[in-house]
Amino acid sequence: MQRLGDIREHFWLTLAMAKHCEVDLAEAMREGHISTAEYADHITRCRACPSPEHCKHWLKNASAGDEPPQYCQNKASFAELANEPA
Prior knowledge:
Elements: H1 7-20, H2 25-30, H3 36-47, H4 52-61, H5 75-82
Helix pairs in contact: 1-3, 1-4
């Protein structure tokens, strides 16, 4: 079984990547686009990522509009949520 990364570290990485993708997960949950379980699933998927250091580096150097790296397990979900009507 794969060991998951630190929950606090990946909580903040998930929020940072979501913000980069112009997604507010808390707002998506309030508006009913995701459930609390789906919110938690985003963090769990991030925790399974073997590249948190690469992600930190990518976030630090990313420009507005840059797509998340291919290895981001939340990439598709963030793209979908970014296109949800407000």
